[in-house]
C-alpha cells in the first residue's frame, strides 16, 4: 500500500506518521509539505519524517499530478489551519483549503487513487445553540477557515468520485502533545500558560462549548478511515470525529488544567461579550461506525502529556503567544524576513 500524506510536517503529521508506520510496517509512506513549520520541532531527538519512505517539498497549489501514480490512499491534512491565519490570509485560505484541495481530489480520482481521507472540522457548526449538532444539521461557518472546510466537503459530496472511497472527518478541536507542538489551540494554550505563569486567563465568560480530541486519537480515526469499507458509511462519508464525552465548556478546560497543575490561578472574564463560536457536537455516528477506533485519551491525560512534554522542553516562556509555537506568528516571521510573500509563496 502506498499512502500520501499532505501537510505531513504540521501538528498532526508526526503523530500520524508514527502510528501508520507501526500499523502498516510494509506500506510506502510519502510526505508532501511546503515546510512552513518544518523547523518548529519540540522536545524530540529524531526527525519524525525519518519514518517516511519519501518526502516531497512543494506547494499544494502547484501539486504535481505524477506524484499520485501508484498511490492507494491520500490523507489530506494540508491547510491554512486555524481562524487567526484564515483571517489574516483569507484569500490564501480559499486558494489552499478550497481550490487546491478540490483540484487534488479531482486528480486523485483521475489517477485511480482508491481512498481519500479529508481532515475537516467541527468548527463549521459555528454558533450552534441548543442540542449537539449532527452531520445532517445546518452548518453555520463563521470564519474563512470554517467556510473553506464547508466548500471542500460540498465539493467531495457532489463530485463524481468514480470508484474512490471518500471520508471527511469533522474533527473536534485538536489538543495534546506533538513533535511539532502548537500552542494556538485552547487546551494547549491553557497548559502552556499554567506552566509558564501559574495562571490561566480566560478571555471569554467561559461558557462557550468546544468538543476536544487528542491528536493521537485523531491519528486513530484517520487509520480507521484508511481501512474503511463502503459498507461502513457509504462511498462518500462525512462524519463527526470525536466523542460525546469530549464536549466541554471553556471554563471546564481551565479548571481541568488547574486540577492537574495545583496552584494554578484561573481568571474568567464574566463581563466578556458572548463568543459566538460555541458548539456541542453529536459523535454518535462515529461511535456506531468505528467502535474499535473511539477516542481513548481523556482530558486529564491530554493535560498530563502536555505538561510532561513542556517540562521536557524546559518551557518557561511567559510570552509564548509571540513565539514560533503560534502558527500565525511563524508565518509572519517568515514574511518579515523576506522568506515568504504575502500570498505565502517561498521567495
Per the CATH scheme, the topology name is Rossmann fold
Rg over CA atoms: 19 Å
**Low-confidence region ranges:** none
Number of helices, where a helix is a run of at least 4 consecutive DSSP H or I residues: 10
Helix percentage range: 25-40%
Can you lay out the helices and strands and say which pair or pack?
Blueprint: E1 2-6, H1 13-23, E2 28-33, E3 54-57, E4 73-76, H2 83-88, H3 90-110, E5 115-121, E6 128-133, H4 144-158, E7 165-171, E8 173-175, H5 186-197, E9 199-202, E10 209-214, H6 215-227, E11 236-241, E12 247-249, H7 250-260, E13 265-268, E14 279-281, H8 284-289, H9 299-312, H10 327-336
Parallel strand pairs: 1-2, 1-4, 2-3, 4-5, 5-7, 6-14, 7-11, 8-10, 9-13
Antiparallel strand pairs: 10-12
Helix pairs in contact: 1-6, 3-4, 5-7, 5-9, 7-9
Concise account of the structure shown:
With 347 residues, this protein is of the alpha/beta class. Helices cover 34% and strands 20% of the residues. α1 (13-23) packs across α6, α3 packs parallel to α4 and α7 crosses α9 (299-312).
Q: How would you portray this structure in words?
A:
- This protein is an alpha/beta fold and 347 residues long.
- It has a single domain, classed as NAD(P)-binding Rossmann-like Domain (Rossmann fold).
- 34% of the residues lie in helices and 20% in strands.
- The protein contains ten helices and 14 strands.
- It has helices at residues 13-23, 83-88, 90-110, 144-158, 186-197, 215-227, 250-260, 284-289, 299-312, 327-336; strands spanning 2-6, 28-33, 54-57, 73-76, 115-121, 128-133, 165-171, 173-175, 199-202, 209-214, 236-241, 247-249, 265-268, 279-281.
- The strands form four sheets. Strands 3-2-1-4-5-7-11 form a seven-stranded parallel sheet, with helices on both faces. Strands 8-10-12 form a three-stranded mixed sheet.
- Helix 3 (90-110) packs parallel to helix 4 (144-158).
- The longest helix is centred in the first third of the chain and has 21 residues, at 90-110.
- The chain is globular, with a radius of gyration of 19 Å.
- The two termini are 35 Å apart.
- The mean pLDDT is 95.
Amino acid at each position: 500500500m502506498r499512502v500520501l500524506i499532505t501537510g505531513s510536517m504540521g501538528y498532526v503529521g508526526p503523530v500520524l506518521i508514527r502510528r501508520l508506520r507501526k500499523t502498516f510496517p510494509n506500506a510506502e509512506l510519502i510526505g508532501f509539505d511546503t515546510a512552513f513549520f518544518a523547523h518548529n520541532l519540540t522536545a524530540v531527538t529524531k526527525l519524525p519524517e525519518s519514518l517516511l519512505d519519501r518526502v516531497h517539498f512543494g506547494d499544494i497549489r502547484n501539486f504535481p499530478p505524477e506524484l499520485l501514480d501508484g498511490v492507494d490512499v491520500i490523507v489530506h491534512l494540508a491547510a491554512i489551519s486555524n481562524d487567526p491565519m484564515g483571517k489574516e490570509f483569507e484569500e490564501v485560505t480559499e486558494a489552499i483549503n478550497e481550490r487546491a484541495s478540490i483540484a487534488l481530489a479531482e486528480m486523485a480520482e483521475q489517477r485511480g487513487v482508491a481512498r481519500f481521507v479529508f481532515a475537516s472540522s467541527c468548527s463549521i457548526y459555528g454558533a450552534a445553540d441548543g442540542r449537539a449538532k449532527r452531520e445532517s444539521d445546518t452548518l453555520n461557518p463563521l470564519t474563512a477557515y470554517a467556510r473553506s472546510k464547508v466548500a471542500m466537503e460540498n465539493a467531495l459530496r457532489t463530485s463524481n468520485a468514480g470508484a474512490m472511497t471518500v471520508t471527511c472527518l469533522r474533527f473536534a478541536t485538536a489538543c495534546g502533545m506533538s513533535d511539532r507542538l502548537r500552542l494556538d489551540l485552547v487546551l494547549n494554550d491553557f497548559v502552556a500558560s499554567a506552566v509558564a505563569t501559574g495562571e490561566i486567563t480566560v478571555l471569554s465568560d467561559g461558557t462557550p462549548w468546544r468538543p476536544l480530541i487528542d491528536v493521537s486519537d485523531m491519528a486513530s480515526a484517520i487509520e480507521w478511515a484508511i481501512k474503511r469499507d463502503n459498507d461502513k458509511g457509504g462511498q462518500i462519508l462525512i462524519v463527526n470525529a470525536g466523542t460525546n464525552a469530549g464536549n466541554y465548556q471553556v471554563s471546564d478546560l481551565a479548571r481541568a488544567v488547574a486540577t492537574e497543575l495545583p496552584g494554578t490561578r484561573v481568571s474568567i472574564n464574566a463581563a466578556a461579550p458572548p463568543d459566538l463560536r460555541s458548539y456541542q457536537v453529536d459523535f454518535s455516528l462515529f461511535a456506531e461506525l468505528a467502535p474499535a477506533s473511539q477516542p481513548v485519551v481523556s482530558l486529564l491525560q491530554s493535560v498530563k502529556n502536555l505538561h510532561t512534554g513542556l517540562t521536557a522542553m524546559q518551557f518557561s516562556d511567559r510570552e509564548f503567544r509571540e513565539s514560533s509555537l503560534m502558527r500565525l506568528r511563524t508565518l509572519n516571521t517568515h514574511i518579515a524576513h523576506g522568506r515568504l510573500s504575502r500570498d505565502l509563496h517561498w521567495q
